[in-house]
Amino acid sequence: MAVATNLPRALSVYEEIHPPLSESQVLLESDRCLECGGPSAPAPCFEACPAQVPVPQFIRAIREGRPDEAARLIFEANILGGSCARVCPVEELCEGGCVLVKEGRRAVQIGRLQRFATDVALQRQLHFFSRTQAKLQSVGVMGAGPAGLACAAELAKRGYEVVIYESRSAPGGLITSAIAPYKQLREPLPQEAAMIERLGVKFHYGLTVGRDISAEELKRRHVALFLGVGLGRDLPARLEGEGLANIWNSLEFIEAIKNGDLPKIGSTVAIIGGGNTAIDVAREAVRLGATSVIILYRRTEDQMPAFKHEVKAARKEGVHFYWLTAPLKFIGEGRVRAIECIHMKLGAPDKSGRPAPEPIPGTEFLLEVDTVIKAIGQERHSKLLEQFGIALAGGLVKVNESFQTSCESIFAGGDCINGGCTVVEAVAHGKRAAAGIDQYLSRVVEVKP
Ligand SMILES: Cc1cc2nc3c(=O)[nH]c(=O)nc-3n(C[C@H](O)[C@H](O)[C@H](O)COP(=O)(O)OP(=O)(O)OC[C@H]3O[C@@H](n4cnc5c(N)ncnc54)[C@H](O)[C@@H]3O)c2cc1C
Predict the structure, then answer these.
(1) Which residues of the chain, if any, have pLDDT below 70?
(2) Is 268 within a domain?
(3) What is the mean pLDDT of the chain?
(4) Domain check: are 256 and 367 in the same one?
(5) d(CA 379, CA 145)
(6) Residues lining ligand 1, judged by CB closer than 6 Å?
(7) How do residues 66-83 score in pLDDT, each as one tens digit?
């Protein structure tokens, strides 16, 4: 089966989808904010932000010509406020809560205003924070992704010695390696990490916990630990022909683009999966010049885990969707040439409570493709996490409301506890875990004679 093409104008691989606002746009946009909220009812935009960025207050500071103060308010709440300004699904969060929307008007562009304020401050290398009271206790943080960075920054502000152990050679986790380059290539993550370093946090790169350093050794070195190790590699499809050339894993595909090593794709690209990663790789395939880009998803559109606004944007860029379609095997001689697919129907609810997709016998068909990208989820770090002797559920860390694990000196947050969500959610976990660690260590000190 060949696919019709309807792609719009050529989009560039690295062109930002949300470029910075001009100064006059900043003034006009900040003027649209109604400054909702008060002591008895917080503004809906603030309530919708997992990191609790005080949106009306920072927008007022911008409007009054105090962008430094705006940036301070943002970074105080979210140390990755510049990155989140670029990558947050604002449509689902702050901008989705904007009261203007309820009045049928366009939301204030909160993300782009946040970007303006944080860009100004980072360009000028402003120092907002310092360690208040130095404490001698040392906390170890596993992973320099958003959860680990936020936890480390918050602990350092509270005076703790903090050491981050990171297996890669740079900070940022998935922001650096996996988030679509049209949202954020790298900047301003390196400057945000530098801000955290200026707080006294020590970074050890190229050190894989569980291989280069054991969980036991970390427990000996530090009075408390925070696990922010995220998730692992792409899950395999476990289908015949998976080893053929031109079949990519989503994370390797995006990382190659982020590193400037553009994947050579053919004209027809099929993506397997229904989450935000599937949407990202589809939109990247469009930007790399594919003329037909098709997402195969085994359930229906309304059951797709991807954000609705992302699906809409992908469709606008020409991405096709084949709902209720599953791959059976990959076919080719050396390189993939086709996917044998089958149509699905929805049956009785499965473990997730959603109707389970079931193949319809006799509906097999061949889809001719040049490239396949698998985006069906990431592995969990069960083996690594087991080494810490903490309780897990389905390979994810079990935590209480303070982000404390079943071992009282070990805390965790981010994707390794929720199976994958957003950067701002991981930041919020890191912050709240730091508060939990602080409380736990204060109690430990109190009971010591
Ligand atoms: C393709 C893709 C696109 C996404 N797009 C968006 C988006 O547009 N917006 C958004 O808000 N969210 C997005 N997300 C989700 C977001 O990136 C994650 O929710 C967030 O990065 C989770 O942060 P984390 O700190 O928990 O984990 P990670 O970002 O995965 O960071 C974990 C860190 O731990 C390190 N690590 C792992 N194991 C070890 C070890 N044994 N020793 C030492 N270090 C270790 C890793 O190298 C990594 O640096 C996307 C996710 C993916 C996969």
Answers:
(1) 1-10, 445-449
(2) yes
(3) 95
(4) yes
(5) 17
(6) 87-88, 142-148, 165-168, 173-175, 178-179, 183, 208-210, 228-230, 254, 276-277, 280, 384, 414-415, 420-424, 426
(7) 999 999 999 999 999 999
